[in-house]
Amino acid sequence: MGTYARQDIVFVRGEGCWLISEGGERYLDFGSGVAVNALGHAHPKLVEALKTQAEKLWHTSNLYRVEGQETVAEKLTRLTFADQVFFCNSGAEAVEGAIKVARRYHYVSGAPERQRIIAFRGAFHGRTLATLAAAGNEKYLEGFGPTAEGFDHVEPGDLEAVEALIGPTTAAILLEPIQGEGGVRSFSAEFLRSVRELCDTHGLLLVLDEVQTGVGRTGKLFAHEWAGITPDVMAIAKGFGGGFPTGAVLATAEAAKGMTPGTHGSTFGGNPLAMAVASTVLDVITEPGFLEAVQTKALHLKQGLEGLKDQHAGLVEEVRGAGLLTGLKLKSTITPAQVVKAANEEKLLIVGAGDNSVRIIPPLIATEEEIGEGVRALSRALTRVAREMS
User: Fold this and answer.
1) Given 124, 187, 191, 244, which residue is catalytic?
2) Would residue 257 show up in a list of annotated catalytic residues for this protein?
C-alpha cells in the first residue's frame, strides 16, 4: 500500500554504523532504523544469538512456558523498577498494553470509573486507533472514524494544566520523557518529578512510553532514571530488540494486579527468537562501561551539533535531546525533508520529526570518529540547503 513516501535507496547489507546500498555506496546510518538498531547492523553477538536459537526453536505460542521469556523478564525486573513483564511485538502494542494495565488496575481496585488518561500534545505513541487517540494528533487521526475515547491532552510542561485535568475519572498520566517523533522535545527532570508527585497524591498510575528513549538511548538504561523517579507502568520496544521486532510492558506488582489469565495476550509476543536477541541486547548494553561510553559520545555529539548551530545560524534554531537521541529544530524557512535529502546526498542517514525538526540518532556503538564524521556530513548537507536557497 502507498503508506510510505520511501526514499529511492535499497540497502543490501549493514556493518556496524554503516549501510551499503545495492550499488555499493556506503551510508553512515544516524537514523538507526528510527532508534531501533541500538547496537548497529550485524552485531556479532546478536547474529550468533539469533542463529543459535533459530536452529533450536522458533515458536510455541504462550500456551506454554517460554524459557527465553523467563530469562529476559528476570533481567528486566533486576535492572528496573518492574516486578512483572508482558512481551509483545512492537512499540504500539506495548503502549496499548500499558493503557490496558492502567485501566484494569483501577477496575480491580473498585474504581471502574477511573478510565481517562492524561497525555501530552506533540506525543507519538503508535499507529493503532487507541495509541493515535492517546497522542491526539489530528493529522494521523483524520479519516479513521470515531476517535477512541478516554484521553485528555495538555501542552508539554504545563503542570498546572495537568493538575486541573485530574478528576474522579482519571486513571493515569502517560508521557514520553523525550518526545522523539514530536521534535525531540525533552521534559525536564523537575517536571517529571512533579508529575510523579501528582500521581502519588491523586492515586494515579504514571505510565511512561520509553519505546524510543529506552534501552541505553539517553546514556542510562531508561531515560526516567535521569530524573530519579520510577513509573508504575512502562512501554518499551525499538532498541530492546536491536532490530528484531519485540516490545514489552513493564509494571510493578501492584499496577499489574488486574492482569489475570485472559485479560491480555499475544500470539507472537515473546517468541524464542525475539527473546534470544533481546536477552543479548540487554547483556551488551549493561556491560561495565557501556553506558558511560554512550554518555561520553553523547557529549561529543552535542558539542558538534552546537557548533553546527553556530556555523549555520540561518538554518538551525536549537539543538535538542539527550544522549544519542538528538535533534535540530530548524528555522521556519526550511523543512526537515530538505535537510534529510541533502544529508542523503552526503551519504548520511537522518530522520525527520515534528515541530520542524530532524533527528540524529546514531547507534550506541558509534565511535567518536564516526560521530565526528556524521557531524561533518551534516554540516555539508546544511551548506547544500543554504546554497539551494540562495
Assistant:
1) 124
2) no
